[in-house]
Hints:
By secondary structure, the chain is an alpha+beta fold.
Amino acid sequence: MPTADELPHYLYEDYASWEGDWELIKGIPYAMTPSPTLQHQRISQKIAYQLEKQLTDCPACQAVPAVDWIISDDTVVQPDNLVICHQEQGDFITQAPVLIFEILSPSTAQKDRITKFRLYEQEGVHWYCLVDPEHSVAKIYRLEQGKLIKLRDISNESQEFDLIKCRIEFDFSAIWPE
């Protein structure tokens, strides 16, 4: 088995030339396959709709669907749904979102629960929601003193998110499949 020094270390310029959907975390490529399921996309759409509606009166924050967040030359991720409360100059996100939703799937669950969790914590994401469609539950984490701390598991209740420049009340009962 090769050592860490023997493995390829990819950069954004490599990532930008790849076909298909990928994420790059600390130089390691992660294929975003298989494509999201219909259930995953429906939940993502419901999250996006609710975020957009909730942020109508907040000129500082905006809901954004999956888009590249370029963290460094060797780290690019695509959260499923996110909220940014800053102005971006280019076509991609370059600063930490305030709120991220990741929808778990069998092929990404471990990466979302461990690798991206640590990355989002390190980058200062204020709120992280791990959405589990199989069990209709979301795990809500809040950044406290540089650590993402589990606040609660939620299914059919609402959660208030303090987005620094505004507050929203997100109704989790509205995102689950019927």
